[in-house]
Amino acid sequence: MSNDSLDKEIEDALNGVDLQALGARPEDDSPSAGGKRRSKSDDLMPGTVSGISGDDVVIDLGPRMQGICALTEFDEPPAVGQEFRFMNRGRDDDDLWILSLRGAKDLEVWEQLEVGSHTKARVTGQNQGGLTLKIGGNEAFMPMSQVSIQRDVDASSLLGETIVCEVMEIDRSRNRVLLSRRRVEEGERMVALSEAVGNLTPGSKVKGKVTRIEAFGAFVNIGHGVEGLVHVSQISRQRVEKVDEVLKVGQDVDAMILEIKEGGKKISLGMKQLEPDPWDEVPHRLSVDSQITGKVTRLMDFGAFVEVMPGIEGLLHVSQISTERIQNISRVLNVGQEVTVRVSAVDPGSQRISLTRLDARGAMIGSEDAVDNADIQAAMNPSAKPLGTNLGDLFKKALENKK
C-alpha cells in the first residue's frame, strides 16, 4: 500500500475518533510556566521505599515529603531502600502524595515509543474504521487494513487480547499513536521465508499445491508460505495452450526449482523437467528422409511447427510447404491439421528438426509425380530389389495417369 493511500485510509478510519480525548488527562497538554508544553515524564517522581503499611507502600519523596502507592502495583513486596519512579496522582486527605508505579511504567513506555518500534498493546474495542488499543494506560488506534495480512481475519476475535504491534505513527502533542499488527506479521513471514528459502537450491525437487492459476502459468505453494511460479512453458513437455486445462487449484504437484531470485521473492519452478525427455527417443524413432504424419501446432510467418512425436515439434519452413510460392501460410495450413512430412534434418543436441512436404526430387509428397518419381528412382537403382516391373511399364503408367 502506498503512503498516499495509507494516509487516506488512516484519515477515513479516524473519522469521528478523538484519540486525544480517549486517554488524555487535563494536565497532559497544559503549558508549563515557561510557556512550553509539558512532557508526560514531568509527572514522574523518584522515591525510596521506607516501609509497608497494610495495603500501601510508604515512599519517601524528599525531606518531610512522603507518598503512598498501592502494594498491588508491585510485582512483589518491595524492600526498604529500593528506589522507583512514580506517577503523581495528587494528594489524599492526610496530605500524602498518591503515587502510581504502573502509571510511571506506562509513561516510560510512552516516552520510549518510536516509529518502527514494536510494542505490546491490548485490544479494547472495535469500530468501523479499526481497533482501539491501550499501550499501558495510553490509547492507540489500528486501521482495519493493518490488523492482519489475512484478508478474511475476524478483527473482533482480538478483543481483549494483548498483541505485538509496530508503531506506524506517533504524535505526542496530540496523544496520537497508530499501530499495525500486519507489519509485524509481514516481518515474521519474511523471517520464515528467508529460513525456508535458505534450504532450497536450484535443481532440487519439491512437492507443492497449486494455489492460483493465471494465463501465463500457475502459482504453487511449496511449504512454509513459500510460493513459486510454474510458467506455462514449464508445465509439460507437450505444448500447453490453456493452463486450467492441465492444472487445477488445490492440485498436488511435483516440481523442480529452476531459479531463486531476490532472496526468495521470485522462485521459478518446472514440472516438465521431471518427465522423461522425449528428445532421448528422437534418434531411435526419426531419421533423415523418413516420412511421418504430424499435427500442425503453430503457424508463423516463416513457417509452421508440426508435432511429429509427443512433445517434439519440427519446423516446416514456408519454402518447404509446397512446390508453389506461399504468400499466406494460413491459406494452406490450419492449426490442428494433420500433414505428412519428410524429415530433412535432425539435430538432437540443438533440439531442432527440419521438415518438408517435398520429396527428394522436389515433388509434393503424396502427389502422382512423387509416386512416379519414387518408383523410377527405385527402378534405376541397381542395388534395389526387383519390383516386378520395368522402366517401360513405369512410363506407360505415367502416361495413363496423365490422360
Explain how this protein is built:
The chain has 403 residues and is an alpha+beta fold. The chain has five domains: 3-16 and 115-186, Nucleic acid-binding proteins (OB fold (Dihydrolipoamide Acetyltransferase, E2P), Beta Barrel), CATH 2.40.50; 40-107, Beta Barrel (OB fold (Dihydrolipoamide Acetyltransferase, E2P)), CATH 2.40.50.140; 202-274, Beta Barrel (OB fold (Dihydrolipoamide Acetyltransferase, E2P)); 278-356, Beta Barrel (OB fold (Dihydrolipoamide Acetyltransferase, E2P)); 368-402, no CATH class. Helices cover 18% and strands 36% of the residues. It contains seven helices and 20 strands. The protein has helices at 3-13, 19-23, 101-112, 182-198, 282-285, 368-380, 391-402; strands spanning 44-53, 56-62, 65-70, 83-91, 97-100, 118-126, 130-135, 138-143, 162-171, 176-180, 205-214, 217-221, 227-231, 252-261, 266-270, 291-300, 303-309, 312-317, 338-347, 352-356. Strands 1-2-3-5-4 form a five-stranded mixed beta barrel. α6 (368-380) runs antiparallel to α7 (391-402). Residues 19-38 and 384-389 have low confidence and may be disordered.
